[in-house]
Specification:
It contains six helices and three strands. The chain is mostly helical and 122 residues long. A three-stranded antiparallel β-sheet has the order 1-3-2. α3 packs across α5.
Amino acid sequence: MLGLLVTHTIMEEERFILAPPQALAAWLRLSVCCARRENGGKLVGAQAFPPILWARMCGLRREDVDAAILGQLAYWAGEDLDVYGYDRTRESDYKSKREAGKARVKRYREKRDHDGTDDASN
C-alpha cells in the first residue's frame, strides 16, 4: 500500500495509551513494514528472523519487537508475528481498487488499439 492510516480510535485504546514509547514506535514501524509488503499485518516466520533481517525489513531491532509484544501491540501466532490493529480491510480495499484500475487501463488500451486510434506520441 502507498500509505498507512492510523485512526484516533485505535490510538485511544488503553493498550496504546499505556504502551511505552519504544513499543509505540516499534508498532508504527511494524505497521509500515506490513503495509509496504501488503501481508495483512502478519510477518510469516518472523520468530526465526535474524537481527539483520529485522533491521533491513522493518528498521527495528529484536528488542524493539519484544517491546511491542510486551506492550500488547504485536503478538506471536506460532512462528508468525501479528501486528495488533493492522487494517486488513483497508489493505484488501486498496488491492481491489488497484486491480480494478489495472483492468480499466487494459480495457482502454485494448479499445484504443482495436479502434486504431493509437497515437505514436504516447
